[in-house]
Specification:
The protein is of the alpha+beta class. The protein folds into two domains: 43 residues; 164 residues, no CATH class. 19% of the residues lie in helices and 41% in strands. The strands form three sheets. Strands 1, 9, 10, 11, 12, 13 and 14 form a seven-stranded antiparallel beta sheet that branches. It has a four-stranded antiparallel beta sheet with strand order 4-3-2-8, with no helix packed on it. It has a three-stranded antiparallel beta sheet with strand order 5-6-7, with no helix packed on it. A hairpin with a 6-residue loop joins β2 and β3. The longest helix is centred in the first third of the chain and has 40 residues. The protein starts with a helix and ends with a strand. The N terminus is likely disordered.
Length: 212
Amino acid sequence: MTAHSAVATPKMRRILIALVIVIVTTSILWLWRGRDLSMLIDRFKLIETSSRPIKTIAYEGKGTGGILHVEDLDLSLNEVELGAAQPSIGTTKDDQLALSFGGKVFPFGPTQSGTESLVTATPSGDGATISIQHSPISWPNFFEINFMTGKSPLWKRHIYQRLVWKKPAGAKLEMLWRYEQYFYPEDRWTEAFMTRPGSTGLIRINISNAAR
């Protein structure tokens, strides 16, 4: 053994030990705090599975809470994680369906007559899309036991519904809903969006360059 290799061996051992410690620590965190780690990564990267233009939007409710019907999706305003602020839906003085939040108002478009709910078609020149995204990393759910059905999801991940609406004059609305999605070995990822108190529902509303 040369002097060089004798010096290098302890260094390699320290590197390997440090690497093992990192792997073990990460594995433990992933098992016990996987949801939090996944949510942290979601802030920087999401995987989009679908995106399509919005042709019509309808509101069913009493001003606060209720449901936004966007194409074939029902976007709930009943579960909101926005702190003390709450969005409200109504009509403006010129009879446009609009969302109010944080002292700002974003008009979707003129309401259509002859309908029970508030409905509007996307005005010409507006750019409106609804997209579905999910977490790039799921977390293990190996220790959950469902005594009712005997079936528990093996993995979980977050799934997001993102609405983006842009006006020709520059006003922009972004709304983001977050839910949990379950993975079963026999069924794969389920289509149902599951709720978790305190972390799911409508989690973000941003209105920029809009009227006050």
